[in-house]
């Protein structure tokens, strides 16, 4: 159900998300940041896991994510240069969320699996939309990355079920899905709160401007030093 919703939203929002070269560049840059962040988490997981076989799988996955980040970043830079007002994107520098340490290996695998499956459905919707718009270069980019996304989804599920067993693996997937939903809700709340705070601040400045003008008209500022006596009365001469 969640996967169907992911694909449906991607199809619905594609005309807006990819409408212009500038929008496309910024979205691809965001994907590059996400891929690099995933790469960092997978490298940390490889260093923390007790299994040499899983460590090797995490490192192979990390190498794929690093390559995807470069692919997205190159295409983003190209589109930014093709925008009506060309602009430069900053270097791709993501941070690790240290999810392996936060969640533990079982939930970490569940998290990665859910993320890969979500990305697969999203990217498949983008490929369909790009082909319909005759944007063959962008379609080819996502098709190339989709090959890895499908493989990542398969191997993370296999490792999770081998590590935890079928029953506990499904429980881990449900727990992580709920955890992700809560995390997104908090992030959305912070995003909205920041925008509301900015809007209210600007509104207060706008509303305060007539009041400041009225004060100036009632009590104009005169040059020089004004000496006042008790209770604000003018000092005797």
Description of the molecule:
It is built from 7 helices and no strands. The protein has 237 residues and is mainly α. It has a domain at 2-165: Ferritin.
Descriptors:
single chain, 237 residues, mainly alpha, Ferritin, 80% helix, 0% strand, extended, transmembrane, membrane
Give a concise summary.
It holds the Pfam family Rubrerythrin. With 237 residues, the protein is an all-alpha fold. The protein has helices spanning 2-17, 21-48, 52-82, 99-103, 105-132, 136-164, 166-218.
Lay out the secondary structure:
Blueprint: H1 2-17, H2 21-48, H3 52-82, H4 99-103, H5 105-132, H6 136-164, H7 166-218
Helix pairs in contact: 1-5, 2-3, 3-6, 5-6, 5-7, 6-7
Spell the H/E element sequence: HHHHHHH
Averaging pLDDT over every residue, what do you get? 87
Write the CATH fold name of the domain at 2-165. Answer: Ferritin
Radius of gyration from the alpha-carbon trace, in angstroms: 27 Å
Number of strands: 0
| Multimerization state | single chain
> Unreliable segments (pLDDT under 50, ≥5 consecutive)?
none
User: What is the name of the CATH architecture of the domain at 2-165?
Assistant: Up-down Bundle
Task: Give the structural class.
Answer: mainly alpha
* Share of residues in helices: over 70%
CATH class of the domain at 2-165: Mainly Alpha
How far apart the termini lie comes to: 86 Å
Biggest sheet record: none
Proportion of beta-strand residues = under 5%
Spell out the CATH superfamily of the domain at 2-165.
Answer: Ferritin, core subunit, four-helix bundle
Form type:
extended
Pfam families: Rubrerythrin (PF02915)
Transmembrane segments: 196-218
Domain Rubrerythrin diiron-binding: 50-159
Protein name: Ferritin-like domain-containing protein
């Amino acid at each position: 159900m969640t996967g169907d919703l992911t694909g449906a939203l991607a199809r619905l929002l594609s005309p807006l998300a990819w409408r212009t070269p500038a929008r496309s560049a910024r979205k691809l840059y965001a994907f590059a940041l996400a891929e690099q962040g995933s790469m960092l988490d997978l490298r940390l997981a490889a260093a923390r896991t007790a299994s040499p076989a899983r460590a090797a799988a995490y490192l192979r996955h990390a190498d794929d994510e690093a390559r995807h980040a470069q692919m997205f970043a190159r295409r983003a830079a190209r589109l930014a240069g093709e925008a009506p007002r060309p602009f430069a994107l900053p270097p791709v520098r993501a941070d690790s969320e240290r999810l392996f340490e936060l969640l533990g290996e079982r939930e970490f695998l569940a998290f990665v699996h859910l993320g890969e499956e979500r990305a697969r459905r999203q990217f498949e919707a983008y490929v369909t939309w790009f082909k319909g718009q005759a944007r063959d270069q962008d379609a080819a980019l996502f098709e190339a990355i989709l090959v890895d996304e499908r493989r990542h989804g398969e191997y993370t599920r296999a490792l999770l079920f081998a590590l935890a067993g079928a029953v506990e693996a499904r429980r881990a997937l449900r727990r992580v899905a709920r955890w992700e939903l809560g995390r997104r809700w908090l992030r959305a709340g912070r995003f909205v709160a920041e925008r509301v705070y900015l809007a209210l601040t600007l509104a207060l400045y706008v509303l305060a401007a007539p009041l400041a003008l009225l004060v100036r008209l009632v009590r104009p500022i005169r040059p020089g030093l004004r000496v006042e006596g008790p209770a604000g009365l003018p000092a005797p001469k």
